[in-house]
Amino acid sequence: MASCAIKMENVTKRFGKVVANDHINLELREGEILSLLGENGSGKTTLMNQLSGIYYPDEGQIYVHDKPVTISSPKDAFDNGIGMIHQHFKLVDVFTATENIVLGLDGEGKFDLKAAGEKIRTICEKYGFDIRPEQKIYDMSVSQKQTVEIVKVLFRGADILILDEPTAVLTPQETDKLFDIMRAMKKDGKSLIIITHKLHEVLDVSDRVAVLRKGEYIGDVMTKDANQQSLTDMMVGHSVTLNIDRPMPKDPKPRLELKNLTVYDELGVKRLDDVSFTVMGGEILGVAGVAGSGQKELLESIAGLYPVRSGEIVFHNPQSGKSENLVGKDPLDIKRAGVGMAFVPEDRLGMGLVGSMGMTGNMLLRSYRKGTGLFVDRKQPEKLANSIWKDLEVVTPSTAFPVRRMSGGNVQKVLVGREIAQEPAVLMSAYAVRGLDINTSYTIYNLLTAEKMKGVAVIYVGEDLDVLLELCDRLVVLCGGQVSGVVDARTITKEEVGLLMTQHRKEGA
Amino acid sequence: MKKFLALFLALVMTLALVACGGNNAAPAETAPAETPAAQSGDSAAAETPAAPEASKLKVGVVLVGDENEGYTFAHIDGIRKAAAAVGLADSDIVWFYNIPESEECYDKCIECVEQGCTLVITNSYGHQSYCQQAADENPEVQFIAMTGDTAMKSGLANFHNAFNMTFESRYVSGIVAGMKLKEMMDAGLVTDPHIGYVGAFPYAEVVSGYTGFFLGIKSIVPEAHMDVQYTNSWFNIQDEGKAAEALMALGCCIIGQHADSTGAPKAVQTAKDNGQAVYSVGYNIDMLAAAPTAALTSSTNDWSVFYTETFQTLLDGGTLPTDWAKGYEAGAVGITPLGPEVAEGTAEAVKVAEDAIKAGTLHVFDTKTFTVGGAEVTSALTFDSDGDWTNDTNEGIVDGYYHESEYISAPSFSLRIDGITELN
Amino acid sequence: MAKAAHTTREPVILMSKRGELLPPWKSWGIRVIGFLLSLVVSGIVIMMVSGLNPAAVFATMLDGAVGTTKRSWVTVRDAMTLLCIAVGLAPAFKMRFWNIGAEGQILVGAIASAACMIYLKNLPTLLLIPVMICASLIAGGIWGFFPGLFKARWNTNETLFTLMMNYIAIQLTSFFVALWENPFGSNSVGVINSQNKQGWLPNLLQEGYNKDFGWNVIIVLTVTLIMYLYMNHSKHGYEISVIGDSENTARYAGIRVNRAYVRTIVFSGAICGLAGFVAVSGASHTISTSTAGGRGFTAIIVAWLAQFNSVVMIVFSFLLVFLQKGAQAIASTYNLSQEVSEMITGIILFFLLGSEFFVNYTVHFRGKKVAK
Fold first, then answer.
1. Superfamily for domain range B167-300+334-422
2. ipTM beyond cut 0.85
């Protein structure tokens, strides 16, 4: 048997009554790339956090290079050559790459920035990283910041690297580049673990796949012997068909017309540039684009949350047949104008929900104004909360349990459930399945499709092109705040969309 | 966010604790009215009937601070000494420390009464109106609001005020300063006889005090002139130090003070150590510890004289005067031991002045020694409680001098005489 | 998120967030245990510092706070004033508007009340008292309005703004004290209307003044109850909670956040202004720069300890006032410095805040099966 970089034996971690990791036995062989695969809440991150010293296991033993070790702090992890690259970067924006990298080092070398810079340059050249040591973090792209994190752990001499969902924030091109780097590191004798949801990435980059499900270790398989179907089966325990049900749009009529919409942010940067398209009732309109291409601004402008510099957003009311320009209205005005607008924002707890409140309190968010009295009626929202709890199988101890403390998927169910319950005319969703497991994702897809079949105009901003192509009827592709194409999702190919995502419309053309 | 909250809470708790503290002990800068307030003088005026049990005296003491605060300590010390002198047991005294100048003072006065006290003393000026209210409701108990000034007008037989004639000792400390000033001028160290004074508030008590001090100096160096800088606080080490520095920057070579901290003497000592020819005259306590070479002397109060007399009067079945004010004659005021650098002959000059004051041949506010607007003063207000610029009591200037603290105990001299400039 | 304890090798204690809400009896049980523990610890500290018998010291505290009818009423009176301020702060803090300006709001409310007492003393009491209440509410509200408006319009920092407003209020108070000073030259206002007691809250239970503070209790408890309903059951109250959690969510839900800011801080300031009325008319019958006396800050602790629940604040304002009174009693009886009693207060507050941790987190001991 090959020697192991890491071996975890019977590792168990509990949070309250929840068993996050139940007697896990995991091996990372020397010089391999291991994918750690599992649905949301299956315990992947928790397990890895015990390697990086953030959590300490309740039971079990960890071996590094076949020696038993105790890792009770991040420092212990570094001492054992383990470095973790977290999903959320831990960098000081106003510092340079070098300063960030030496930050937190103790002992000598900390203040010799010149030497550190040299060492960093060497590392960068070795693996082909495109960062400069003296570059400030705020000047960097997301992928560069990630690179800094990687260099940080390499700088400290890690030979075991753990990457927690590194591709979530990257464009496809950047992802490819990251994978090249990972392969280079592997060639250099490092051992790597990558946590990810995306099956094609698993198949692309790793040598071996280990699967967790609901805190338990299901097994491992050599990547060359696996395919999407077999991995999905391992992950979810039963076969899930990857095909999303997509009925033809029903009687599509223009519901929302955007005309030459242009917005600027607080700093005066143009975020949407002359955006025009039409959303039909009874269809799902997908919005594709690299992160930060204006998706957020687009939805928030429609919702009345973003100041519009010029252009129109015309709503055609299906009941009264009247048309109304929404520009210049705030959400309350829009509501009072009788526009049934539902919005599932990207930042669920920061914008769509009140984290400290339970389900009932969150149901109230859309309905508390009902009635003329001074006081709030909680009976209806309580009923609604209970029905969502049941219908969408939300896992929570009670309708009073703060949603902030629910898991991501349940939070999303609460949010989507509430928005749909409004019986809207327009339903907008941003990254509705981000961070959700496959089952919940499908629940969301089905809910959206059901809305579409009710005649609702659904706008779906997504990042996973496969889903966009399978779920939506038409796609609007954004690039740098401009519409680079409006296409039929049934006929276009992934490559063509990818091309549009990176293709700026020529100025004045 | 969590971290912020934690920090915030910590901040709030700190603020709150500081605020609580300010209530009680140390003077908070936000509450200038909160410190040992305006003192007052004396007068042998209206005697009122009071009938405490001759056999037993129980005293309630409501104090604005505690032992750690100089002004209150002087009172505690005086009461302890007086108690020992007349044979009062510890159990015959009920102490309340750190009582703010609020309704709490009234509450504590009532508590004293409930605990059987026959005499209740409050020591801060701001306690007065609460003390008076309690006196009004409990005519069988004697109340004394130290440094207060409303007893005479209140018409209450059981409500009294008391103060020492501190202006006398200030005059004497002025002589010490004047001797030094003259010595420095004779030696050519100083050409302009410029004096500085750190005052707390522009109240009569302070005006009376610095005028006394200035007249003492003037009796030695007639051409001396003085600037007064107010700090608007009874106790603020930093502000008093800064005020002293400002005055020294103006060319003042001697800094007097009517504020309770060591801020000014320390600042003067620092300047002196840096080669400036400057000296300090303090208040309340010996400043030699704070300014070993710069301190000349301090004027002080000995409250035990008053307390002993009061306790004895009540034990003897006598009645307390409505207003009590005594000075050198009774040993209630004095100056601290002279510093190492006082001018030659100072002790002798001091002795002469003290004897003259005791004998009643020297009056501090002799109208021949000062002018207002270039003219000698022939008439002045003594006490004017309603602000109508007419006297509540007698004319202040009789027989060629101002009768300070004789009609009511609180100092009332508030003329701004020539030679003194208030800077703020 | 859970965190390993700061041990180096073998962490003995592990902490993690509770996966469920504790039932009220459990969470309150934890708090009571925390309180009892704090007594034990402060007892030990007292013994170590002063060599006194802790039981006697606690008995003295109890005696100092509620030993006589008079003391009990004084404790009630001060607790009511503190409660009124805390209740006033609740809506502002709940919406994460850091109103550090209660001191100033109390002072302007007090000025307004005192002004009525001085200038409108000829009105009959039945009319004068309501006028004073309104005046103090309006004054406090105005003091809240400015920071609210600036926050809404220009996004100024309300912490600094309200703090600055305190200093303005203090200066304003100094001005009025000088204007109304009595006797002249004393720099204090003295007891206002001490002869005829115009504008004084009368006694509820017995004849005379300052014998009981029944009206203080009635007024403040009414305000507390109203605030409870407002915060928990009104639409405004709901909006406040949403804004406090996330301003973005509030905008998303169509709440006009700026308007809500101004409205709420005016309301908050008004109640603090009312506390100024209670302090002047119901307790001190005078005004000075120390009328607020730091209670605007102490009340923040009360509000946080009670997690902005007005009804729970009753408990905590009594506790804090109780501790204050007890502390004074210790100082007087044993001639201990005030700092010792402040240490005790600190220990008790520390444990009370600490018990919140155990309400939200659970602790495991290594080698043992999870201690619930």
1. Response regulator (3.40.50.2300)
2. no
